[in-house]
Amino acid sequence: MSKPIKKPTAQDKYYQHGDSMRKYLRSLWIAHGRSTKGQVHVRDAIDVKRTMHIVGMCLLPALFFGMYNLGLQAQLAIVDGATAADTWQTALFNLLFPSLTADSGFISLLAYGACFYVPFYLTALIVNLAWEVIFSRMRGQELHEGFFITALLFSLILPISTPLWILALGLTFGVIVAKEMFGGMGYNFLNPALAGYAFIYFAYPTEVAAIGQFVAVDGYSGATTLGLAATNKLSFADVSWIGALSDPLWWDAFWGFTVGSVGETSTFAILLGGGILLMTRVADWRVVAGVFAGMVVTAIIFNYFGPAKNAMATMPWTWHLVTGGFALGMMFMATDPVTASYTRKAKFAYGALIGFMTILIRVLNVKLPEGIMLAILFANLWAPLFDYMVARANIKRRLKRHGL
Hints:
It is found in: Cell membrane. The chain contains 17 helices and two strands. By secondary structure, it is an all-alpha fold.
C-alpha cells in the first residue's frame, strides 16, 4: 500500500525557497572567487567636508602663483607701453601700494593680482552659496561644502577681465541646470563649473574669448600660447616632443610665466597639487593616466598624419601638456568622483576619451582651441555607459567561469 503524499509544510517551503535563492545569487555572483583574509573592517574618517578641504588646499599653489603671475603680466604689459586698468580694482590697489611700475616687487605683484581675483572669487562664492542654500531649504537637506570648490574652479578657468555679471550668470546656469535639477550633490552627471563655462563661452564669446581679457591692463592684447598656435602664429613643424624641453618658452609655460587664466598658467603648481590629490586617493590615478595617455597617443598620430599647415596638428604632446587648461582639467576636473566613471577599467576608458577629444577639438576647431573643458563634458555623458559595459563584461566572464 502506497504511502499518502505528504503536503509540504511551511518549513519545507522555506528551505526550498532558500535553495532556489542561493542558486540564483550564485548565478549572478560577480565578485572574486577568493575569500577575504586579514582585516575586513575599514574605518575611514573621510567625508564630503574633508574631501573638499583637501581639494581646496591642493589648488592653493596654482591659485597663489596665478595671482602673482597676473600682476607680473600686467607689469610686463605696462613696460611694453600699456596703461594700468582704469577700474575700481586698480583704485583699491593704489590705496595700499604705489602704482604698478617696472620696479614693483613680489608683494606688489601678488597684491595687484589679488585685487582683481579675490572679488572675482567672492562673487562666484556668494552666487553659488545662495543657490545651494535655496535648494537645500526646498529639499530639507543638509548644506554640503562642495559649493566653495565649484566656485573656486569656476573662477580659476575664466579670464580675469570677464564682467562679474557674466560670471554670476554662468555659475547660476551651471549650478541649477547641471546640478540642482538632477537632485543636487552626488546626483549630477555633468561638472557644474564646466557646464557654466560652456554656457557663457557660447552665449558671450566676445566677452570671454577675447585675447585682451587675460591681462589686467588697458590697451594691450595678450594672446595665450594656445591662441597663437590656433592662428598659426607659432610653428611646431620642426619641433620634436623632447626637443620642446630645450625651448625656454616651453619652460616659461611649464612654470607659469605666460598669459592665461589665473588657475591654468602654472603646470608645475597644478601637478604639485594634483600629486597630493593622487597620494591622498581623493583623485584616482587611473583617470589621470587615461587622460594623459589619450592625449599623447592622439597628438603623436596628428604629428605624423595631420596637415602640416595646421600648427595645432604639428604641436608635440609636451606642448599640449603645458598650454591652456589641460593640466588643470586632467588633475582636478576629470577626476571629479561624481561625474567620472566608477569601475576601474571604465576609468581608463573615460580618461582616454577625454585626452582624445581634447586634441581632436584643438586641431579641428580653430575657433575653440581650448578643448579640455568640452572634452570633459562630453566624457561625462559616456561615463555611465562605460560602467555598464564593464559590469556586463564582468558578469558574462564569471558566469562562464562557473559554467552557468
